Amino acid sequence: MTTPPDLTRKRCTPCEGGVPALSPAGVRELLRALDPAWQVAADGRSIARSFAFDSYARTIGFVNAIAWIAESEGHHPDLEVGYGRCRVVWSTHAVGGLTENDFICAARVDRLGAA
After folding, report:
1. 64: left (phi over 0), alpha (psi -120 to 50) or beta
2. Among the four 56, 61, 83, 113, which has the fewest Cβ within 10 Å?
3. For 29-39, what is each residue's pLDDT tens digit?
4. 100, 91 contact by CB (below 8 A)
5. How many helices (H) and strands (E) in the chain?
6. Pairing of β 47-52 and β 78-82
C-alpha cells in the first residue's frame, strides 16, 4: 500500500464545473490522507467531520480559522455551528461531488483540530 499524499502541501485549483467528480476509488485513496474521523456521505458527494470545544469562544476561533482557509483557497465548506461544536462539510458543488480540493481543505482543517 502506498503512503497517503501530504495534501497540506497542495493548493486548490479553480473549479467551475466541467470536470468529473472523484471516483469512489479516488475518494478512498484521498480519504486515507485525512483523520479517520472524516466520513463520506452515503451518496458519496461530500465528506464531513465534527469537532468539539470547551467554549463558545474556541468554537468561533476555529470557525474563523476555517473561514480564512476557505477564502485563501477559494473553496468554501458548509458549517454547522453551536455552543462547543462545529460540523464541517466539504463538497464541490460545481461538479456535484468530491474533488481533490475538498480533501486539501479537509487536511488543513485537520491541522487546526490538532492544535
Report:
1. alpha
2. 83
3. 999 999 999 99
4. no
5. 3, 4
6. unpaired
